[in-house]
Amino acid sequence: GIIHRDIKPQNLIISKDGKVKVADFGIARAVSQDTANSAVVGSVHYIAPEQAQYGQADERSDLYSLGICMYEMITGRVPFKGDNTVNVVMAHIQEAMVPPSVYNEEIYPALNDIITKATKKAPEDRYQSAGELIADLKRCVSEPEGHFVRLFDTEPKRSSEGRPQAQSDGKGPDNTEKAKDTEAPEQEESFTHHRS
Asked: Would you say the C-alpha torsion 156, 190, 101, 70 has a positive or negative sign?
């Protein structure tokens, strides 16, 4: 298989017959042992935490980026925004994501859960294959109000200070929604960092 490593709206094309096609395989790599040792490359607003932090990418990393694209389609904004690329990357690694339903109350529960699962911080908590994600999306069409998506949390969520967070549902310690101004980026920034 191929790991794209830079899934973002600019690289997704919808054909006249409604099929989605992925473009720009400039930084794609074949799945191999070398994939885990590659340079950290990708667009900061869509980069998976493990790709940003360790330079490791697999199918689940691309599914995370696709989940961010779906989040933006549903809410009109990316989940994390910062003053610079490092702040955005660190948010992907450390900050809890505000559920899409906070910004779009009309989202169906099943789709909210699908996006939430696709964008989990830990790869093992996400969809393990595109086939799993597609199966849930198809089921969502017939059961939009359903709660059939299996959500897992294997890693304790941590604050920016490194302390475990009591809530992993996008709410702050006072149980109020944590909403940031995360409008869609006007111009996409790329992040490249070579591990030493």
From this structure: negative
